[in-house]
Write a structure and sequence with these properties.
This protein is 68% helix and 0% strand. The chain has 90 residues and is an all-alpha fold. The chain folds into two domains: 1-35, no CATH class; 42-90. It starts with a helix and ends with a helix.
Amino acid sequence: MTLLEKFHCILSNTGLSKSFSIEALVYACHLINKLPSSATGGKTPLKVWLEKVAQDYNLLSNLVPCQGRQIGSESEERCVHGFQEMCERL
């Protein structure tokens, strides 16, 4: 169900006037973000987004020790490879 469909359902089922359309739209958006979806494997969009942020943070935190490494060293190459993987995922 799209945002617009949820919005229309909220307005029609509650009997609210059009003066409450902003509140109904905000609530419809809130519902979409909080309810599990089959498109996200039964997870809420918020949970999917937070998992993605956590994965990106873990990848970035692995790159922090790369500072001060000698250019051309094996550890420096691993850092560059990890950064390239992160950029490909974005």
